[in-house]
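Pipeline run #58 for the internal structure catalog. This entry was flagged by the ingest filter as a single-chain record with no existing model, so it goes straight to prediction. Upstream metadata was stripped on purpose; only the residue string is passed forward. Reviewer on rotation: M.T. Logging verbosity set to normal.
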Amino acid sequence: MKRTALYDEHVRLGARMTEFGGWEMPVMYDSIVKEHMAVREHAGIFDVSHMGDLYLRGRDAGKFLSRLTTGNFERMDVGDAKYAHVLNEEGKIKDDVIAYRISEDEYLCIPNAGPTPMIEQWFESHMEGFDVKMENHTDNLVCIAFQGPDARKIMEDISPEAAEVKFFKSKWVDLGLKKMERGGFQGLFSEKSLVSGTGYTGEDGFEIIALGGQGVELWNRLREKGARPCGLGARDTLRLEKGFWLSGQDFNEDRTTLETGWDFIIEWDHDFIGRKALEEQKERGDHDRWMGIILEKGIPRHGSLVYRNGEEIGVVTSGTKSPVLGKGIAMAYLKRESAKKGESVLVDIRGRMAEGVLTKPPFV
């Protein structure tokens, strides 16, 4: 398994380590619930350096990303960030990504950890005809997610300039980290870090990308200011409360953007791989519908079947016990005609039927 530049810090802090996407990562330090609530009520930090870092440069870099995703990256301003889906020809989601436009002809695209090699290969196989080059810098950089209602106040104490970065915007900021000489793309980080107003918890905050050798200093500076180290366990429960998907679990090249219900991220003003399939599916209108389920008792899990009036209507893709609600919550793809907010359903949890109510996430 791969290890991030913060691995030794995680071990020193007593983290329980686990495999995730080919990386050895902290699942928790003390308690998933305590770490979860720290982010909801104060501020937490996550090592998300396992996420991919694909650097794209060239006159057609924006045009290329637009062709490969549901987003129109040519329309972005420098400093903008955009969330989009990478689709196959059938319109099904290979992965979801965030990309930053860091200059007129440069973008940094962030795929998920496990799919990064696949996305890199997919991009490479479609580069013909585009003036674009790609470099994978996943192993050279760290990314720390800094989230919670107090995150911006803490960031003001570290860097007022960084604290001004808004939602889905990014900015190069000197955070006072030790200088490291690097060439090429990494040289951009020798004096500054890329601070963005993005995250996966539904709380205000930032994601900070820096050189690997600066990671421990940045991590400990945030800890000293009061941010609590959090593992992937809390990251999973936090994202689920907000109705965010987990790549490879909530979709695995088996669902389309329309089925996820987030069709608002599809920018129809450009051509992209999978567009024709989405247009045909949209016209038919017979695709499954993504919904949330709240249970009074029981904890649903991935693979739990959902029933209504004795008929199987779908399957849970993500489920947990919400630390905020104190109830079981789930996300599921359901037959369209049965997926109506407020309707009662039964969820099969290891052979026991648990009553639930359909809702539209977020749950919190």
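catalog note: The first strand starts at residue 16 and ends at 20.
catalog note: Residues 46 and 230 are 5 Å apart (CA to CA).
status: ready for reviewer M.T.
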